[in-house]
Structure formats: C-alpha cells, structure tokens
Amino acid sequence: MSGLLWGAMSVIRKDLLAEGRAGEVLTVTIPFGALALLFFPLSINTDLAVIRQIGPGIFWAVVLLFGILVTLRATAADPPQCRDLLLLSGVEPASIFLGRTAAGTLLLLVFELVLAPVMVVFYSPEGIAGWPWLFVVAGLVAIGLAALGTLAATLSTGLPSRSAIAPLLVAPLAAPILLAATETTDLLRTGQGIIRWILLLVAMDLALIIAGMLVAGPLEESMQ
Amino acid sequence: MILKDLDLVVEASEIVAVRGPNGSGKTTLLRLISTLLAPTRGSAHILGVDAADRQAVLGCRHRIALVGHVPALWPELTLAENISVLPNLRPLGAGPIAEALKTVGLAKAADRRADRASLGMQRRVEFARIRLNLPDVLLLDEAHAGLDAGAAALVEDTARLVQSNGGSVIVVSHEVARMQGALSRVLDLVDGRLEAAS
User: Can you tell me whether residue B113 is helix, strand or coil?
Assistant: First the structure.
C-alpha cells in the first residue's frame, strides 16, 4: 500500500511540476472558461430571471467541457519512454493512475475555484444558501472528471485519432456527474435536500477510481 | 514473430554486446529482458522471475534499468528534477543528485529544462540516474547515440560500474568496437536467432 501511494506521490509531483512550467491550465484554460461564462448571459440578452435559472447548469457544463480538456492534456503529457521509465522505477500502473487522477483533481479544483466567483457575479448575485456544500460538490466533481479523463486518456493512448476518441469516451460517463452537480446547486438555492445527489457523485467517483486501478495494469500491458 | 529459437543466458557481472541490422529485433529483445514486453511463446526468466507472471515482474522491475534510443526525460522538467521525481531516487535528496550530475559533466546545467538541453546532455542525465541506483540488469539500446567521443566513455564506465557491483549489462550498439575492452561476449542477432560473433 505504501509503495502504491509513494509511486502516486511521485506522479503527482511530476505532473504538477510540468503544469507549473507549461502553465496551460492557468494561462489558457481558466481565461477561456471565464470567457465562456461571461458570453452566455450576453447571448441571451441579459434576461436576469433566465440567467439565474440556468446559471448552475451553465457553470457545471463549462467545468465539464474545459475540465475534460484539463485532464486529457495533463494525462497525455508522458512520452512512451517516460512511461517505461516510471514502470522500471517500480511504479505500479495503478499508482500511475492514482497519481494522475490526484494531479488532475488538484488542477480542476483550481479551475473551479477561480470560475466560481465569476459564476456568482454573473448568475447568482444574491449568493447561494448552503454554499459551503458547493466545496464538497466541487471536490467530488473534480475527482470524478479527473478519474474519467485519466481513464479515457489511458484507453486511447497510442491511437492515431486519440484526441478525437478520448472526449467521446468521457462525454457519456460525465453526464451523471454533470446532472448531479447541477441538481445539487439548484436544490441548494431552494433549500432542499441534496444528499441523494451527493451519494450519486460519491458512487461515481468510487466506481471510476476502482475501475481505473483495476484496468491500469492490463491496459499498460496492452500498450507495450 | 521477430525473435525465434532464441536462447540467451547472461550471468552476473557479464557485459554482453548484441549487434544486428536495423529491424532485426534488438530493441524487442531488450524490451523482453526489461519485462516491459511479455514473451508470446517460449519462456524468459529475468532475475529469477518468470516474465510471463506479470504480477511477479512488478516486484523486480526496480532492479532493471533500460536506456532506450530516445532519452526518457520529461521535457518541462529540469535535468535535476528529471532525476528527483523518480520514486526510487527521491529519498536520496538534492546532494547526491547534484553530485551525480557533476560526475557526468552536468554540474552547471542541473536547472536547465530538458527540452532546452542537447541530446548528449539528456543522455548524460540517464547515466547519472543509473549511477545513483546501480541496477542488477542494465540494458543499453544504441547507447552511444548522441554522445561525443569524450562522453562515450561514460557508457563503458557505467557498464563497468554495474559489472563491479555484480550486475549484468546487455549493450545493443552499432559501435561495439568503442567498448570492446569491457565486453565479455559479442553476439549477432540474425534472422531472429543469436549467434556468437565470429
């Protein structure tokens, strides 16, 4: 177990160092995500009632679409010879999956935290009751998307049409995550219970992480 | 099937060179020995572990080092970080890593990004890694590629270091003559089979 976590920590460090140098999330994805949130109210003629009604859905749709980009880019970063090096350094494929998912989760959390104020300003200026729950939802969405992105990136590694196939793999499985996140935010605004949607997010996250760890070894073998 | 009827036993402290034309299966052979590839037929035992037992090979991989013909460096990381991110080298800390980089002539380039380093410098980083954690099996694929005459001595020097530590070395190179003095045997890979060089 400690070997699994030690290997995962190395992958997290490597991915975050690489992102720190490349800065793609901070300098490219976040500004584009903020612009997408800004353009939606403009495109529906600043009708405040409609904007507030569709705000959570738009926010989570933007997080989902740009989040997929974040995780796919982060997990595509390893050249084949570096993958071999990690394996020969004693890092298990399951560790690589866990590490990439954790690094992707951290990047997505930054993305969500930067976009959240933009969402509040444009879509819910009066604020959202029970907003501390949004941190829980944001964390669960980030874990789910990161696990899904890592799994899809691993499945499509080496394929010539990788960049086209990976998002297609992610989109259907991301739908329940998007639905649960949107419903939770909506229900929080009206003061209703959210526990079943939180449970759905937890179940999705666990299922994706377990599936990813189980298939990581066979997938790595099939890529050789 | 690129390799067939191939029989190879490498003892501890041996340095074996394998020659062969392009596409003859030299890289496939090294990847089989590294356990990254599993044999589709026949059997392979590396460090006493059956390569077909994919769970068991996970436990011995950290004792094997493979230097491929493309350097295994993450382009955005510095040369020093490319060593320190590896879980089996991280506990060493910055001091030994700086010392290893100095040994391979990269003392002043530790903070240079890998994608801004020359091929020769990237190659040297790989040898610095090996020196920090001497493997039981060292596999060198086109080991002299990208190295100038002075730096090419690093290949032989590192191979001898692994040998003196009781490890085995298998070198694939078109320039076997450059380390002739260190070799225990030279083998030719012809039509998927290994033959002693004449």
Answer: strand
In whole angstroms, what is the distance from residue B153 CA to residue B5 CA?
Answer: 34
What's the pLDDT at A117? 83
Looking at residue A77, what is its pLDDT?
58
Chain B environment of A81 (Cβ under 8 Å) = 68, 70-72
The total number of structural domains in chain A stands at: 1
Strand partners, B168: B137
- List, as one string, the DSSP characters of A156-189: HTT-TTHHHHHHHHHHHHHHHHHHHHHHHHHHHH
Distance, in Å, from the CA atom of A87 to the CA atom of B68, rounded to the nearest integer, reads 14
**Interchain pair B89, A89: CB under 8 A:** yes
Q: What is residue A129's three-state secondary structure? A: coil
| ipTM of the shown complex | 0.90
Give contacts of B72 with chain A, Cβ < 8 Å.
79, 81-82, 84-85
Q: What per-residue confidence (pLDDT) applies to B165?
A: 94
- How many Cβ atoms sit within 10 Å of the Cβ of residue B90? 16
Mean pLDDT across the stretch B27-37?
A: 92
Encode pLDDT of B41-85 as tens digits: 888 899 999 988 888 888 899 999 999 888 999 999 999 999 998
Low-confidence ranges of chain A (pLDDT < 70): 1, 45-46, 73-77, 125-128, 158-160, 162-163, 223-224
CB contact under 8 A, A89 and B62: yes
Please check whether residue B119 touches A, CB under 8 A.
no
Q: Dihedral angle at the C-alpha atoms of B117, B123, B124, B130, nearest 10 degrees?
A: 140
- One-letter amino acid at B188 equals D
Query: How many angstroms separate the CA of residue B131 from the nearest CA in chain A?
Result: 14
Do A88 and B31 count as a contact with CB atoms less than 8 A apart?
Answer: no
Query: What is the distance in angstroms between the Cα of B57 and the nearest Cα belonging to chain A?
Result: 10
Q: Which of A18, A77, A84 sits opposite B36 (nearest CB)?
A: A84
Residue of B nearest to A84 (CA): B36
Give the C-alpha separation, A179 to A171, whole Å: 12
Of A18, A88, A92, the CB nearest to B74: A18
pLDDT-derived band at B190 (thresholds 50, 70, 90) equals confident
Residues of B in contact with A9 (CB under 8 A): 87
Domain limits for position A154 = 2-223
- pLDDT tens for A94-142 read 999 999 999 999 999 998 988 888 877 777 766 667 778 888 999 999 9
